[in-house]
Design a protein that fits this description.
Number of helices: 20
Distance between the termini: 7 Å
Radius of gyration: 24 Å
Structural class: mainly alpha
Shape: globular
Largest sheet: 2 strands, antiparallel
Strand content: under 5%
Strand order of the largest sheet: 1-2
């Protein structure tokens, strides 16, 4: 008698030992990252009472996760991520593992009561998004440190993905994306060290500057982590507006501006490679949007007070939007015209190679040049014009991808806003679009009415969590992983059904 069996060998990802190691490695790295974060946060505040219980949960969970990772790390001797499928798989499963583990930790500590809120908070942290239903002033110090550290880790992971993994996946097809070897060391490990040192250095500089500007040590520490990562979590319920300090806002303006820059630009500047900076089209458009957006905000916005205050307020809002940080210094209610400008800045985001999200200035340049070329071809079919970005030719394959990316970008925002409105009938359509866009570009809800974050419901929380993960991972890698998973499931279902039929025939 033959017994029907499930054909797991048809799942290539699980058939290959390297595939197993890639998925297994993502869990190990998620465990060690979350474990170290939990230990640091737990020891940051260890009082008595309820707060002491939370700190104890963080420390014990951190040691457990770290021990698990260390004990199983020896199984990753030959661990490599050198193929597009392995890069995408590792990133995808790392995010899922980190969010799942953090959700369990938050539930165990008693910070949240429901699984949907736990997933929302976890996804918001690791994807460097500022969407949250928690009041930071009601949280113990350990949790605030924990939230800030998760965003910092998420920002560092995003930089590693761009500068280390992107050159692997691009294969030279996308010159605007292959930053790593052209800016930093050609050796991946050396490149990771350089990026890590630069990222830590920027964080330390922001911490010192905030402290000198008058912010307390703890607040400076927390905000330096969430600013350098363009995360946006604050230790205050009303975000930066609680400090009512001009020097603090100017420090954050400069820090958020740097957060939206390609990290390679800062590296080039430090090494005095000014010629590379001057020829960068992406930087020119970023500066134009930064200063031009601030000018439009100041001219069209309803700013009141002294001239210096109005200018600072305009620059703060533009830097918060363009870098996708999501800090708030005062109310974000504007006229329809200013709101449209704000949404445009938010959707665009910063430069490629920054921890921020958004459509990307490099894609915007490619799209503008592509549309200009197609309009030229309409009147002159013989005209052949290659599209260049920062002196590099963009091939036709990447332009085809760009069209698909743009269409999917719009579709995801529309679908997200629909699901949010479905779960909350009181949510205005413009607010649902703004919140959906904010989640997808990992910026938080900076231009919506305060208090809306508490009224999303279960479907809304899960929708926002998915939007944040897809936005952080990027559309095409996420679509790739979903496609691979669906193919694997379909293959196994086919194998199962075929074996069932054979078994019935034998019986």
């Amino acid at each position: 008698m033959r017994i029907a069996t499930l054909k797991l060998n048809q799942m290539r990802n699980f058939k290959s030992p390297k595939g197993l190691q890639s998925n297994y490695g993502s869990i190990i790295f998620a465990s060690i990252s979350l474990g170290a974060t939990s230990i640091v946060a737990g020891f940051a505040d260890y009082p008595s009472g309820a707060d002491g219980r939370i700190s104890l949960v963080l420390v014990i969970s951190g040691f457990f996760l770290s021990s698990f990772a260390v004990l199983n790390f020896k199984g990753l001797r030959n661990f490599e991520v050198n193929k597009p499928s392995e890069v995408f798989s590792f990133s995808f499963y790392f995010l899922l593992a980190f969010i799942a583990l953090q959700s369990v930790l938050l539930l165990a500590s008693g910070v949240v009561d429901t699984i949907d809120v736990a997933i929302l908070e976890s996804a918001s942290g690791i994807t460097t998004t500022a969407i949250s239903s928690l009041n930071p002033e009601a949280l113990p110090t350990s949790i605030n440190v924990f939230r800030s550290l998760t965003q910092w880790v998420g920002g560092l992971g995003a930089l590693f993905l761009v500068f280390v993994a992107t050159p692997i996946t691009s294969s030279g097809d996308n010159p605007s994306a292959a930053y790593g070897p052209k800016i930093f060391s050609r050796k991946p490990l050396k490149r990771m060290q350089e990026i890590g040192i630069l990222y830590i250095g920027l964080t330390v500089c922001v911490f010192v500057a905030l402290n000198v500007a008058g912010m307390g040590i703890f607040d400076s520490f927390a905000h330096s982590l969430t600013t350098s990562s363009t995360g946006g979590f604050s230790t205050k319920a009303s975000s930066i507006s609680s400090f009512q300090s001009g020097p603090i806002e100017w420090v954050l303006i400069c820090a958020m501006f740097l957060g939206g820059l390609n990290l390679g630009i800062i590296w080039w500047f430090g090494r005095r490679k000014l010629q590379n900076i001057k020829s960068n089209n992406e930087l020119r458009l970023y500066l134009l949007m930064f200063f031009g957006g601030a000018l439009l905000f100041w001219l069209k916005g309803d700013f009141v007070g002294p001239f210096g205050y109005q200018v600072r307020d305009a620059f703060f809002k533009v830097s918060s939007l363009l870098s996708t940080t999501g800090y708030i210094n005062k109310g974000w209610e504007f006229s329809s015209g200013i709101s449209a400008i704000a949404l445009l800045l938010l959707a665009t985001g910063g430069m490629a190679g920054s921890p921020g999200g958004g459509f990307g200035i490099h894609r915007l340049i490619e799209l503008i040049k592509y549309l200009r070329r197609e309009l030229t071809r309409k009147y002159n079919r013989q005209a052949i014009r290659k599209i260049k970005v920062s002196g590099e030719v963009v091939n036709e394959r990447e332009l085809d991808k760009l069209q698909g990316y743009t269409a999917i970008f719009i579709f995801i925002i529309a679908m997200g806003s629909f699901l949010l409105s479905l779960d909350n009938e009181s949510l205005r359509i413009e607010d649902s679009v703004a919140v959906s866009l904010s989640a997808f570009v990992t910026a938080g809800p900076p231009i919506t009415e305060s208090g809306l974050v508490n009224g999303y419901g279960i479907l809304g929380n899960f929708t926002l969590s998915i939007l944040m993960v897809v936005g952080r991972l990027s559309i095409l890698p996420a679509a790739y992983m979903i496609l691979k998973l669906s193919q694997a499931i379909r293959l196994n279902l086919r194998g199962f059904v075929s074996n069932e039929v054979q078994s019935d025939e034998i019986l």
